[in-house]
Amino acid sequence: MSAASSNHRTVLTLFFVNFLLYGISITLVGATLPAAIETHGWNYLETGLVVSAASIGFLCAAYVAGIHLRRFGPKSVLITGLCLQMLGAAFYGEHSFLLFAFTAIALVSIGEGVSEVVTNYCILNLESDGKIRLMNI
Predict the structure, then answer these.
(1) Which tens digit of pLDDT belongs to each residue from 41-56?
(2) Who is most buried in 27, 84, 92, 108, counting CB within 10 A?
């Protein structure tokens, strides 16, 4: 096995883990909403605002990450996204203050949006011959 093949395999494994963690985190946020409603005493409108922050953050991050990929490079953009994701996840559910939860979930979603765009970009660039075999299991 060549060094390039080994590096591709390592990078693909890391991207797979990134997507796996993304799926787990988005599932956990949804699964913890009933407990957050009960614990924090939010009504459905307030809960909807928190969930909306996730969608808005993801959409904006996907757009902005695509613009910044060429300027800053995929590595720095991905690291920034993962840091935002960790920061938001660390603070999600810490306080019952709605703006705090809104901000935390927005940070998680921004990080997830950035991670998804950078991961897709890098996988497509790894496949140089245009067959996109790497996107298939």
Answers:
(1) 888 898 888 889 989 9
(2) 108
